[in-house]
Design brief:
Elements: H1 16-24, E1 50-51, E2 69-70, H2 77-88, E3 92-99, E4 104-108, H3 114-138, E5 148-151, E6 156-161, E7 165-171
Antiparallel strand pairs: 1-2, 3-4, 3-7, 5-6, 6-7
Length: about 180
């Protein structure tokens, strides 16, 4: 597959940060075959984010530290650990977890604060929906979008959609 982080290029492996980033958000499935993301309840209304007062790692980036938001549900420790590990990489500018409907469940990093976070959430939801629709049209039955990586001059977005959630990692590829 072209673009995989751990792919060997020119006889050399990708930098350790890239492999670590890939490993951080490809957690093994749970023993009970349930999703490893926090439950958002049974309500059909989108969750209302609330500040929980936890400050993520600063990644060595200048600027203010963003607080994380989450729904009032208990977040499993393995999810907290994975999100903090992702946020801790020096080139990661932010991590965003969306409900499948596009509502922001949790974020970290100044890149996803306020209106900017809402813009990223809406854009990524449209991209994922468009890709899924096109895969259904041209792909084999049962084929689905698992991972999407987009790189611009300034940023790189890594998107991992699921049936209930969408994980987005924004990083600075120049570091």
């Amino acid at each position: 597959m072209v673009g995989r982080i751990d792919k060997i290029r020119d006889g050399k492996r990708a930098p350790p940060e890239s492999r670590a980033t890939r490993q951080a958000y490809t957690t093994p499935p749970r023993a009970d075959n349930s999703l490893a993301m926090p439950s958002i309840g049974t309500s059909t209304a989108p969750p209302t984010p609330q500040v929980n007062g936890v400050a993520p790692a600063t990644n060595g980036a200048p600027g203010p530290v963003a607080t994380s938001t989450t729904t009032p549900s208990n977040v499993p420790p393995e999810i907290e650990y994975t999100l903090s590990r992702l946020s801790g990489h020096r080139n990661v500018r932010g991590v965003l977890v969306l409900a499948r409907q596009g509502a922001i469940i949790r974020y970290s990093g100044v890149a996803f604060e306020g209106e900017q976070g809402r813009k990223y959430a809406a854009a990524v939801k449209k991209i994922v929906d468009c890709c899924r629709t096109n895969i259904e049209e041209v792909g084999d039955e049962g084929d689905e979008l698992k991972f999407l990586r987009m790189r611009t001059k300034k940023h790189e977005l890594m998107i991992s959609p699921d049936e209930r959630y969408i994980l987005i990692v924004l990083q600075d590829p120049s570091q």
